[in-house]
Design goal:
Blueprint (H helix, E strand, L loop, with lengths): L9 H4 L13 E8 L3 H12 L4 E4 L8 H4 L3 E3 L6 H8 L1 H25 L6 E9 L5 H13 L4 E5 H6 L6 E10 L2 H14 L3 E3 L4 E7 L2 E6 L4 E9 L15 E10 L7 H4 L1 E5 L6 E4 L5 E9 L3 H6 L1 H15 L7 E11 L6 E3 L7 E5 L5 H9 L2 H5 L5 H5 L5
Parallel strand pairs: 1-2, 1-10, 2-7, 4-12, 10-17
Antiparallel strand pairs: 3-6, 4-6, 5-6, 8-9, 9-10, 11-14, 11-15, 12-13, 13-14, 16-17
Helix pairs in contact: 2-8, 2-12, 4-5, 5-12
């Protein structure tokens, strides 16, 4: 599956001088990670620091799947609002999921410091806004639920938002969010792991996995094998190719990035913003003063149809930007498409789909893929060791 169109933003501004070989012999290891994007990199970081022997493979160049197309909004809010998630999954699971997401933002900051990544990480506020009167009761219910469970949020009215340059009528301001360059961070983590002894093979496609004498044997397209005690799938939306259970609905999403600007709207200087539309629109800035906007999601059909829509979606997103910021001139520089997915409850999937196989998954679907991935690496050792873990229960397969 082609997860993104060719002209995405992060690889163009974050070109790396690191390359990895494809596999050219049979390999034995303790743990095999399939997927070399941000999720696979984070899993590798956790396991290497625990002293595990790890091999990581990717069917394309590392970090060039969904990671290259991500707009990297780090939020604790999930795609399903808290007051609705409580109804779907119960109060404890819902509130813990929001709290775990908040902790993950600080966890990733620590990882960035450890690997010394210059990935443009910045803490921001998160502003969840509406431009429609009909959505105010919904937004107030969400505000009430978050306040009730001690999340640090404030209510913003039309005048508060207008002072900051946003044409909207109400919003919830959360104090904890962040932005970064996910492509650079994933590359920096992989380099860190390689220096600690991890083998990395890109352009190495695993086409089948067999169980032999209690071990998992991965067969590659170029007819080599990787034998491992455990396999961790960090293949994101391509996991639909290996899972029997349907856990995600695939979507096509679109994004645009401006030129580097001297001035940006006041509200975007300190916050990422997103709205109550379904699908929602979101806005953030980069370290070099660009604005990224995304949205216009559609059901995924195939990559060719997705990519042919880029010019149309580019115009659509530009019109939406003008509605929110009528006095601001957005100078377009890049536009691209990607594939992402939505689960029925907006939450990720962690653990073993089949208890009889030593194959584990970390699948951070939805708009919170990176924070979900951080949450996932905190439970992966318990999955490997067959230990009970609340996250493995919350985010289990077959739920």
């Amino acid at each position: 599956m082609k997860l993104r169109s060719t002209e995405t933003f992060w690889p163009l501004i974050s070109a790396m001088n690191i390359s990895y070989p494809s596999i050219d012999s049979n390999v034995d290891t303790e743990i095999l990670i399939i997927g070399g994007g941000i999720t696979g990199a984070l899993a590798a970081y956790k396991l290497i620091n625990e002293g595990k022997k790890v091999v990581l493979v990717d069917r394309r160049d590392v970090c060039n799947g969904s990671t290259a197309a991500s707009t990297a909004l780090l939020q604790y809010e999930v795609d399903v609002p808290l007051h609705e998630l409580i109804k779907l999954r119960g109060e404890k699971c819902a509130v813990d999921s929001f709290r775990n997401g908040k902790k993950a933002i600080f966890d990733i900051r620590q990882i960035i410091d450890e690997v010394k990544s210059n990935c443009g990480f910045e803490f921001k506020k998160s502003i969840y806004f509406t431009s429609y009167k009909k959505d105010i009761p919904f937004l107030k219910n969400e505000f009430k639920a978050r306040k009730q469970h001690d999340f640090d949020v404030s209510w913003m009215n039309k005048y508060d938002l207008e002072k900051l340059g946003l044409k909207a009528i109400a919003a919830i301001e959360s104090k904890t969010a962040a932005v970064m360059d996910p492509f650079r961070l994933a590359n920096d983590i992989l380099k860190y792991c390689q220096e600690k002894g991890m083998l990395i093979f890109d352009r190495t496609n695993v086409i089948s996995i067999q169980t032999q004498k209690g071990k998992s044997v991965a067969h590659t397209e170029n007819k080599f094998t990787i034998t491992a005690n455990h396999i961790i799938h960090c293949s994101g939306y391509e996991s639909t190719e290996t899972l029997e259970e349907k856990v995600v609905d695939l979507k096509s999403t679109y994004a645009v990035a401006s030129e580097s600007l001297e001035e940006i709207p006041e509200i975007l200087k300190n916050a990422i913003i997103w709205d109550t539309s379904s699908p929602y629109f979101y806005y953030r800035t980069t370290a070099d003063n660009r604005i990224i906007m995304g949205g216009g999601d559609e059901d995924f059909r195939d990559t060719n149809k997705r990519d042919k829509l880029i010019p149309k979606k580019e115009s659509f997103l530009m019109r939406q930007f003008k509605r929110r910021f009528p006095d601001f001139n957005f100078k377009l520089d890049y536009s691209w498409a990607g594939t992402f997915g939505e689960t029925k409850d907006g939450l990720p999937y962690f653990g073993k789909p089949n208890p009889k196989k030593n194959e584990h998954y970390i699948l951070g679907f939805g708009g919170n893929g990176i924070t979900f991935s951080v949450m996932g690496i905190n439970s992966i050792l318990d999955s490997i060791n067959n230990k009970k873990n609340l996250d493995l229960e919350y985010y289990r397969f077959g739920r």
